[in-house]
Structures are given as structure tokens and as C-alpha cells.
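BUG: 3D viewer hangs when loading the predicted structure for this chain

Environment: internal workstation, default settings.
Expected: structure renders.
Actual: progress bar stalls at 90%.

Input used:
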Amino acid sequence: MGEIRLFPGLLAPPAGLDFLLDLPSEEGLHLVAFAEGALDALKAAFREGARSLVLLSPVLFRDALLGARLGALRFGLERGGVEGFARVGRALFFGALSAGSEEVYEAWKEGLSEAGLWRWLGRLEALTDERRWLRGTEARVLVVQGALDAFTPPLHGAKVADFAKGEALRFVVDEAGHLVPWEAQEEVRDLVADFLLGEGFRPLPGGLAL
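C-alpha cells produced before the viewer hung:
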């Protein structure tokens, strides 16, 4: 049994990624990160020699499109605080599985704070291209994204997987958005469970999109 360490990021719902903590895994260190938490996980993988690395909706570089989306979120936060940010975020972070659910939206919004959102914005606005950290680890990599992620679309994840020296799997989950670990929790749990045990893993150039 290995050690699983979580990096949920600042936009995760209050429950975070704890639903993945009890999964069986191979010996060694296994890191699971959401969104901007990917960078902290990659640095830990480099320092500690992680065996595997799961990146859920990773945010590791900022391009013009991401910059424009961050600008819209900043405008929402400046004008309306947490509520303003959440209203803009609803169109960017949720897929068809939960975009219309007030219950899911309110549960996500409950975990947000104005101070935390400003930290999140500052961190992403200062982001350069941090994919280089993938070249500093021998860990096998799994990238999972929602097919309807409007904040970091599937191409964003593909560009992350491309830096993993070919030793990566990439899965796109139908109908889910940026918050894919919580919108499609059972599917994500099954994918991560197999990956932590090394089942079905094959290194493929450029990653594998299903």
C-alpha cells in the first residue's frame, strides 16, 4: 500500500478530493492534484520521487485564452465579490452534468472566500509555463479533464500531457466541465483507482485521449 497525497487547489468544493484517499495503490508516493494544485504536486514529485501523478483539470500554463477568462473572473470578483465571481465561474467551470443544478452550485460556492479567490487569481495571473516540471519526474502521469471544460478545454490538458516525456494517459470525461472530479465522481474514482495500481497503464507518445 502506497501513500496518497492530495493537492485540491483553491477552487475545490469543501469536501475536496478526500473521496480518493482510501484507494489501494502500489508502494510509493502517489500525488493527486486539481487545477492549479498541479504545480505544487509536480514540485513534490520532483523532490520526493513520486511513483505516480494524477492531474485533474491541470492549470500549468497561461495562454491568451486563459488570460481572457481570468480577466472575466477578475471583473466578476471586483464588481460582485464572491457572488460575482461565482456567477461568471458558473459558465466556465461547470459541464452539462451540473450546470443547471442549484444544489451543486451552492455547495461549490459555499467553499469560496473573497481572500481565497484573490489568492487564486493572483497565482494564475502570474503563471508562466510550468509544464517543464513534468520533465523533472519519472512518475507516470494521468490527466483527466471534462469534455465541456470551458476554462481549460481538453486541448489545454493535451498540451500538458505532451510534456510528460510520452509517459502519460489522458482521459476526457463526457458531459463534465472543469470541476470534473465532483461532477463525475464515480468515473474519476474508477480511473484513478486503476491508475494507482498500475492497471492498464501503457506509456504512449503524446498521451491517450478517449
